[in-house]
Amino acid sequence: MINVISTLLVISHSILFVSGDEHTHTYTDKEEVVLWMNTVGPYHNRQETYAYFSLPFCIGSKSEISHYHETLGEALQGVELEFSGLEIYFKGNTPKTVYCEATLNEEQLKTFLYAVKNHYWYQMYIDDLPIWGIVGEMDESKNEYYIWTHKKLDIGYNKNQIVDVNLTSEAKVLLKLGAKLPFTYEVNWKPSNIKFEDRFDKYLDPSFFQHRIHWFSIFNSFMMVIFLVGLVSMILMRTLRKDYARYSKDEEMDDMERDLGDEYGWKQVHGDVFRTPSHPLLFSALIGTGYQLILVTFVVISLAIIGELYTERGSLVSIGIFIYAATAPVNGYFGGSLYARMGGKVWIRQMMMSAFLLPALVCGTAFFINFIAIYYHASRAIPFSIMVAVVSICTFIILPLTLVGTVLGRNLAGQPNYPCRINAVPRPIPEKKWFMELFVIIPLGGILPFGSIFIEMYFIFTSFWAYKIYYVYGFMLLVFMILVVVVICVTIVCAYFLLNAEDYRWQWSSFLAAASTAMYVYVYATYYFIFKTKMYGLFQTTFYFGYMALFSITLGIITGTVGYIGTSKFVRKIYSTVKID
Ligand SMILES: *[C@@H]1O[C@H](CO)[C@@H](O)[C@H](O)[C@H]1NC(C)=O
């Protein structure tokens, strides 16, 4: 079994990280340098992209290249590199050369006009360095549209490595029927002092990401955490101590007195707190997935901090998928053991649900958006081969690993060693004040956690939907940890109030109260869509809201699980110290 798994891991690893020559990033003089054409799309929406050659640009004359490379992560992000056909040789200057000449027919004219009117940009890569260029220019007063036909590449090199690229677009030609477009290029090599390690620095935007507001918000959240932790521990200590005192006094009274006395509060529900919540199957699948996602988030962010992953296209997504697959046993272990403790019988069904909950959600959303993308011919459409790869990762890696985890979890941690016995008959939940109802407590629970992360959300959204490279993963890790602490504090308080109101349904309510953070994030995403982006149309709207829903759901599972873990520790603690006859 283990053998099979390790073989599969190796295979999946090689699917995920197909490497090529460009990975060494060193060149000898006159060695071939490949200019890759990536995508073209409107400037105002970085996520709406089409293949570069979907516009009637022409390909250069060179047809053979010595290597090709693409990773799963790239493909999932809609990166589909095509060779430009231009001859570029390391340190070999190319004077202005015509690589093809096109005469515009009606259809091509219409396409180019559309692109220029919508501020289309295109993107290229040379030695993994991104290059952006604008398609054309318009003169609205005269209602004239131009296209840039000359690409001037200034490439800086440091010893045997490429460290800098500038593109200048020149020679604009008026777009009209029958116009001759001589597409030309030019390459100038210049020695540069930029160090290879620093070559991505010019794409980063410290004045945006390290803005005072960003630092301030983190400082703010941090203070909030300290305040909250202090407050929560103080209140709980005091009230709990009072509760214990009251309960121990009760014990000294005889039964008669006790019946007349004021018996109320969380101790009353000791026979029900560890009662299995409704929908145990779904609940344990969510918690298992949550444990896994927490681990994946933590590992990916840490790797991003260490490895400066932004310098390689798609590597973050590839690594994310790889780590998700590799951590599947965690999901099985925690989901399976929880299900066993809750006395669940259909553990195989529970395991399947645990394993496929998130993949099904992600694939379902991606599939739906893909349909629309294919209809619009966008380059976001995910190739069929990639879908097959994803499905096989799910069935041949994630499922067996989840099985291993589930079996381990059921056997090692499947015993329900609760501190209190569960009564045979469920206690009725008494009438409560309106603000103690679940539909009030649950949405209230998300407010503070959302408050601690929403500025970071702005930076993450902006880097995803606009031309910015996110690189401040240290901030992200900090915010993630702050979020965890805030969520735990808030859900513990919620659970305490609920239990005091003799409502013992703390499992789902702590999960949902924490997960409601994601609901606010989604509302914020809607706000962001309306006021901060310039997207429009069916494709862009579904794309945005589809992926944002996925993001929010994932976040919701993470925060929900964090809330549940914190609360269950708390509940266990308070009921284990109280003596029950
Ligand atoms: C690219 O442009 C920048 C800013 O104008 C300049 O400092 C740099 O030297 C240019 N690089 C090359 C290789 O021409």
Automatic annotation (TrEMBL):
Superkingdom of the organism of origin: Eukaryota
Protein name: Transmembrane 9 superfamily member
Gene: TM9SF3
Recorded topology in the membrane: Multi-pass membrane protein
Membership in a protein family: Belongs to the nonaspanin (TM9SF) (TC 9.A.2) family.
GO cellular component: membrane
GO biological process: protein localization to membrane
Source organism per UniProt: Armadillidium nasatum
Signal peptide: 1-20
Subcellular location: Membrane
NAD keyword on record: no
Keyword Manganese recorded: no
InterPro entries: EMP70
